[in-house]
From TrEMBL, chains A, B:
One MF annotation (Gene Ontology) recorded for this entry: kinase activity
Keyword NAD included in the entry's annotation: no
Species of the source: Pantoea rodasii
A Pfam family recorded for this sequence: BcrAD_BadFG
Boundaries of every ATPase BadF/BadG/BcrA/BcrD type domain copy: 6-255
InterPro entries documented for this protein: ATPase_BadF, ATPase_NBD, Euk-type_GlcNAc_Kinase
Keywords, sorted A to Z: Kinase, Transferase
Name assigned to this protein: N-acetylglucosamine kinase
Length: 291, 291
């Protein structure tokens, strides 16, 4: 009997799943609720299970067919040892089950299963390189400690600069004026705001930074140069492990490109497929290997 | 009848008070509980009231004598408009009551009531300048947005660097090794730690940074140079408003001095008196002015 391939992309906002036959023909697709195994383990596993049930229901396949399935799930936080340990107890009915992070399956998708690397720069940042045998992860240790080159870090620096300008310690600029205007030009309002701000909140001024840099704002230009330098520093070890092919992904990937050096831009390739396709690429590879 | 002077120094760990006659002769001294009007308004006011009651009890003075008292209180957070507004309802029995921040009374003490400035670099950072008529405050908007040159910011940068070294993105050094050893060389342990870390926790690696810089550790040297540059940037506007006299205070004040430029060091003066003495200096000045 033919084997089946099942890919799961589980993230903080929702969980997606796709079931195909061994040739890649889609049998079913489904979307479920949030599946962050790092912050909400039990809820995340339930969301993933629900999506799997839905896929087999849609495909009209009996329960015993699951025993021929190669499952690849990409879940944020799997690289954290405590989460990884807990996941050992999750054994969904399948022939084989492989766990990766969301960044790893994104990497497999970006290069259609071939060796390559990704660096994701959105609210946070994290990298992964696939050499054809194994993944290497880089960064992704959170807003307080890591996330170099990300929108949250960029936004925090911009707000700090706006406050310095408000107090006359650095010159004001259109960017710093716009940021202070978001807080009624009041450091106190900004302080109160900062006590509840999430990384996504910090990152919300990023479009203003790109817009004012476009108009020559010196602070905005310096901030984007710093972010570009951080991205270049982070991608060097990824390039070394990925045959020099790198896809930049996430919300900052496109706007930051004009700020990167020509040498780095020359090594960038566009992502070819999405993360769910990456999970299925891996499932296909693994299903063809001897157990 | 002779007037009395009452100084209060209210901070997050405790509240101190001193009662003197108009010539500065000490009549009583007392210490009470935490008095942070920013984070715990009601408890702080109660702590201050308790210290005042204790002072008059110790001095053996009747309640009506309080009507001849000039009170100066230095309380962290008074500069925040919402706290300032709430404090209008606090009218302790006195002839006159003046409210300042803890940094302002520290400034008055450091220069024995004469014009001058202070920049306090401990866990956080904040500056104040006194031109003889009014105070100007600078910085002090918290760990997330401000506190340039402080131990918490320095410690956060050092930990971030240690994590970059752990992942091979920057070279390791004795400093980064020591910091990772605090977290069993595990980024995950450090991530979990970071989610609960207070500014004081971030600052706890500062002694390691000074110690390794002493031995020529390149990361430690670069970190201290950056902190020194931030301090120099922050003190420029203070020097401009204080006849060029500046006292550096707080836990980093002494160790950071070898890292500051000779031009800045030449303008530094040692603090002459403590914050409580500063409050009493101000009380003395105000009691001699026409109401």
């Amino acid at each position: 009997m033919q084997s089946l391939l099942l890919g799961i992309d589980g993230g903080g906002t929702h969980c997606r799943g796709r079931l195909t036959d061994s040739a890649g023909r889609v049998l079913a697709e489904a979307t479920g609720g949030p599946a962050n195994v790092w912050s909400q383990f039990d809820g995340a596993i339930q969301a993933v299970e629900n999506v799997i049930d839905e896929l087999f229901l849609q495909a009209g396949l009996a329960a015993e067919v699951r025993d021929r399935t190669t499952l690849v799930a990409g879940l944020a936080g799997v690289n954290v040892a405590s989460v990884h340990a807990r996941l050992q107890s999750w054994q969904p009915r399948s022939q084989a089950r492989y766990l990766f992070t969301d960044v790893e399956i994104a990497c497999a998708g970006a290069h259609a299963g071939a060796p390559g690397a990704v660096f994701i720069v959105g609210t946070g940042s994290q990298g992964a390189a696939w050499d054809g045998v194994q993944f290497t992860l880089l960064g992704g240790w959170g807003f307080a400690l890591s996330d170099d080159g990300s929108g949250a870090i960029l936004g925090r620096r911009a707000r700090r600069l706006a406050l310095l300008a408000q107090e006359g310690i650095v010159p004001a600029s259109p960017l710093t004026d716009r940021i202070m205007a978001l807080h009624q030009h009041s450091p106190e309002q900004m302080l109160i705001w900062s006590q509840q701000a999430t990384p996504a909140d910090w990152g919300r001024v990023v479009p203003e930074i790109f817009a004012t840099a476009q108009q020559g704002d010196e602070h905005a230009v310096a901030l984007l140069q710093q972010t570009a330098a951080e991205i270049e520093q982070m991608v060097q070890p990824l390039l070394a492990r990925s045959h020099g092919k790198l896809a930049l992904m996430g919300g900052l990937a496109v706007p930051i490109q004009p700020w990167l050096s020509a040498a780095i831009v020359a090594q960038l390739v566009p992502p070819q497929e999405d993360a769910l396709s990456g999970a299925l690429r891996l499932a296909s590879q693994f299903s063809q290997q001897p157990a």
